[in-house]
Amino acid sequence: MDGNYRKCVGIVVYQNDKVLLCERKDTPGGWQFPQGGIETGESLIEAARRELREETSIISVEPAAVIEEPLRYVFPSQIKKRRKWKYDGQEMQWVLFRFCGRDQEINLQTAEPEFCRWSWEAIDEAPKKIVEFKKQVYIEVVKKFKPEIEG
Asked: Of 46, 35, 45, 52, nearest to 68 (Cα)?
């Protein structure tokens, strides 16, 4: 897949055998894992911690696994036009964190809220709830992280 892809980190947070899914404010019914750009000079884990804190207020996590090989998805044309993005899609590396805090730590009312609700779900639910254009990436993430989560 040639093109201009934004470098991002996707973040899966788990406790017991459930993962954190968040519903986007701008897409009712659109659930996803937290994610965001990797800033210049930032390590993958640093970017994941920063994005997780910015989007969910969560800081009580321990790294459990990573997917360093980038997984890509392409933005549908209507999304590119609506948001006026210069990127064709996103190229994502993924981090799995074990949540060691309490649910009260999760606060979506952040400086720039992206999500309106959150839920602990079985990891197999993530590909069922994600928008279609990200589905294949989520299937790969589930395949790689499920053994660690359910282990």
From this structure: 45
**Alpha carbon 140 to chain centroid distance?**
13
CB 94 within 8 A of CB 11: yes
The pTM (predicted TM-score) of the whole model is 0.94
Q: What are the distances in angstroms from CA 18 to CA 30, 35, 110, 125?
A: 18, 18, 23, 10
Q: CB within 8 A of 88, min separation 6: which ones?
A: 3, 4, 5, 74, 75, 80
Per-residue pLDDT tens listing for the chain (151 residues): 578 999 999 999 999 999 999 999 988 999 999 999 999 999 999 999 999 999 999 999 999 999 999 999 999 887 777 666 788 999 999 999 999 999 999 999 999 999 999 999 999 999 999 999 999 999 999 999 999 999 8
**Contact between 55 and 110 (Cβ < 8 Å):** yes
> Torsions phi, psi of 78, nearest 5?
-65, -30
